[in-house]
């Protein structure tokens, strides 16, 4: 198997030097030789069925019609179910998932019917065609089989072929003749794209063929004549690609000389002859198009006209057809174009504006959006498709003026005490003045929607604290509305705050709570002097302050305002019981104590009367005979300790009993022996007996002196 790519301007010269009509239009063809058929074949029926190419009947060398069926699949040929009788010049179609063979002829007769492949054999579904034909045109439209023209004679003759349009109904099984062709036709190249039948050339009788080209519309049974070929042709293959029809091979005369394997295409109302040829020039081949590839089977090889078993594929690459714009719109400084895919490699888009702005872009998709255009300026756009062979037909020129509804405004909300002020400003007006705003809000039981005109703020009152509200603003100009700008907020009020002071050993603990989220300002002052001014977000603070009296003010600050509360705090702690030591010097009682925590002064009471207010830690109390009560109290500006109490007994004999009556512990009694004071009295003398008596009494009294110190609390 050989593969050959046909290059531009390749001319196949046959019998003599020949001038080929070559267009300046860019075009490319690719022709490949595939696996050859098992036998040479001419004029077979060919169809694409179940993913394979079927070659049915035809003439083999002799020529002899054959019933053979060959199937090409996965790169190789296999034998298919043979026809019940030999046929050449038949045509094949696929309808409703089944393969049909129509018409054809052999040595004995013309088959005027329809065969259907059913499993592994063929069945005759009709044998009553009004005029049996072969080498006809066959296609299916609207559940009906169309048979157009075709030869209806046997043997050597120059009689014209049929000009009838015969239609077979698959539903009723009946035939009818619905019209005629513009002229008798057989051996024409044809292609049906589902809507339009294209017919090129054909044998018209009297040993002549035609250069005519037609479109047939089965929807209304009408014919349209197109630009004819430069010369008559018959027995060629016809392909269809991107709205372009093209012929390959056939019996084609150019200025009276046969032109083997000619390739020509019809583009924008004209025929072009680029000088390409088939790999194996043929006529009266069978052919079928699968996708964008035309497969050509067998035929007479030119110029020898020997039957061939060649199997070829050919593709045509044309400049792209005109793009069909399906959508275009202008926006905010933008223009968007969308067009149908016409199998181009890419697209140039040229644009120019009335303001002098112009440019060109390239894209490989079927849509493009221009940005950075000026709103209000008129622009013009044209799309030019291209592929590897050149630029295609430009699209129509589209004229658009960018404009826009306004962009979404910017919105913010300022919260107040049970109110909210909604403020907004435009971002871009779309190139045209903003005429006003729509404002809406919802939340709780509030529903509000209104055109508020061309203002920039609005205040909502009597809102419910704690409720979430959704507010939106829509700007509009003469072209329409912007997208809504939406924000949510929670309504608030001034915060209710409560403040608590806790006196601790290591400082003053201030704590508080608030009914609304807030920032807090704490101000602490004493004697008119500010000591602390703190901005806080938490709910407590420990202040390391000396003992004293303080004014504490707490301000709760939020968007609704300021709410404050104040406390007068005496920061003192209760002093503990003083620790006292007592000594006696004569009739003077020395009272001493250690410094007491949290005390700033001490009170000394004698017999219930304040004797001393001192910051010292000692005092001297004179005693008189009898009972004397002494109390020592530690104090500060706010608190007094429990008193430390002592009771002192002083006898006339200078005997002293001191009792700590603060304690209830009996074991705290202590006896102190205090020597009597000896006085000398002028002019007084005593005898020895009296002195002994006094000495005895002194010893006795010395034995009974006790100092009982009893601590009471």
UniProtKB/TrEMBL annotation:
Residues 319-405, 406-496 form the Fibronectin type-III domain. The chain crosses the membrane at residues 688-709. Keywords: Kelch repeat, Membrane, Repeat, Transmembrane, Transmembrane helix. This is Galactose oxidase. It holds the Pfam family Kelch_1. SMART domains: FN3, Kelch.
């Amino acid at each position: 198997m050989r593969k050959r790519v046909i290059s531009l301007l390749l001319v196949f010269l046959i019998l003599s030097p020949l001038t080929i009509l070559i267009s300046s239009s860019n075009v490319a063809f690719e022709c490949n030789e595939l696996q050859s058929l098992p036998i040479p074949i001419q004029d077979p029926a060919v169809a694409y069925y179940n993913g394979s190419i079927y070659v049915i009947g035809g003439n083999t060398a002799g020529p002899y019609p054959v019933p053979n069926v060959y199937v090409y699949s996965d790169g190789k040929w296999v034998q298919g179910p043979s026809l019940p009788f030999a046929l050449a010049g038949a045509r094949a179609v696929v309808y409703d998932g089944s393969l049909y063979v129509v018409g054809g002829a052999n040595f004995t007769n013309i088959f005027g019917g329809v065969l259907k492949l059913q499993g592994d054999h063929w069945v005759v579904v009709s044998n009553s065609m009004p005029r049996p034909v072969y080498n006809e045109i066959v296609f299916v439209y609207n559940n009906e089989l169309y048979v157009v023209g075709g030869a209806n004679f046997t043997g050597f003759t120059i009689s014209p072929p049929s000009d009838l349009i015969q239609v077979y109904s698959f539903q009723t099984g009946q035939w009818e003749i619905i019209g005629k062709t513009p002229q008798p036709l057989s051996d024409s190249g044809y292609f049906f794209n589902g809507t339009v039948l294209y017919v090129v050339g054909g044998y018209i009788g009297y040993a002549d063929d035609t250069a005519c080209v037609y479109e047939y519309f089965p929807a209304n049974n009408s014919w349209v004549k197109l630009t004819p070929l430069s010369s008559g042709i018959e027995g060629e293959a016809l392909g269809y690609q991107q709205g372009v029809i093209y012929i390959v091979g056939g019996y084609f005369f150019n200025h009276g000389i046969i032109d083997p394997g000619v390739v020509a295409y019809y583009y924008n109302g004209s025929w072009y002859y680029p000088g390409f040829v088939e790999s194996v020039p043929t006529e009266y081949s069978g052919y079928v198009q699968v996708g964008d590839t035309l497969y050509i089977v067998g035929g007479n090889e030119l110029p020898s006209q020997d039957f061939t078993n060649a199997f070829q594929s050919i593709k045509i690459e044309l400049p792209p057809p005109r793009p069909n714009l399906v959508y275009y719109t202008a926006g905010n400084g933008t223009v968007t174009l969308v067009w149908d895919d016409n199998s181009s490699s890419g697209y140039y888009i040229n644009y120019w504006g009335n303001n002098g702005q112009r440019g060109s872009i390239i894209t490989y998709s079927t849509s493009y959006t221009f940005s950075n255009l000026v709103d209000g300026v008129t622009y013009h756009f044209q799309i030019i498709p291209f592929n590897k062979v050149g630029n295609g037909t430009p699209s129509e020129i589209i004229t658009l003026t960018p404009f826009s509804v306004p962009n979404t405004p910017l919105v913010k909300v300022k919260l107040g005490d049970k109110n909210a002020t909604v403020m907004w400003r435009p971002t871009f007006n779309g190139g045209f003045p903003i005429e006003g705003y729509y404002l809406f809000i919802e939340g709780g039981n509030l529903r509000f929607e209104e055109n508020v005109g061309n203002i920039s703020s609005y205040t909502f009152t009597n809102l419910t604290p704690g409720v979430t509200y959704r507010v939106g603003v829509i700007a509009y100009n003469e072209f329409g509305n912007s997208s809504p700008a939406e924000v949510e907020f929670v309504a608030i009020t001034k915060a209710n705050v409560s403040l608590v002071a806790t006196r601790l050993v290591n400082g003053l603990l201030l704590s508080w709570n608030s009914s609304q989220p807030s920032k807090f300002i704490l101000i602490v002052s004493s004697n008119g002097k500010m000591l602390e001014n703190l901005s806080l977000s938490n709910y407590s603070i420990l202040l390391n302050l000396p003992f004293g009296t303080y004014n504490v003010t707490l301000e709760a600050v939020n968007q609704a305002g300021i709410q404050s509360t104040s406390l007068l705090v005496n920061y003192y702690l209760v002093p503990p019981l003083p620790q006292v030591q007592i000594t006696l010097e004569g009739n003077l009682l020395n009272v001493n104590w250690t410094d007491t925590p949290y005390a700033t002064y001490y009170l000394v009471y004698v017999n219930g009367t304040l004797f001393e207010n001192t910051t010292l830690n000692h005092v001297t109390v004179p005693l008189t005979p009898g009972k004397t009560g002494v109390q020592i109290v530690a104090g500060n500006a706010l608190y007094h300790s429990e008193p430390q109490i002592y009771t002192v007994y002083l006898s006339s004999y200078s005997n002293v009993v001191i009792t700590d009556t603060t304690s209830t512990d009996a074991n705290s009694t202590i006896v102190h022996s205090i020597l009597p004071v000896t006085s000398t009295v002028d002019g007084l003398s005593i005898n020895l007996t009296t002195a002994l008596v006094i000495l005895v009494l002194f010893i006795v009294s010395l034995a009974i002196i006790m100092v009982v110190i009893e601590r009471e609390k």
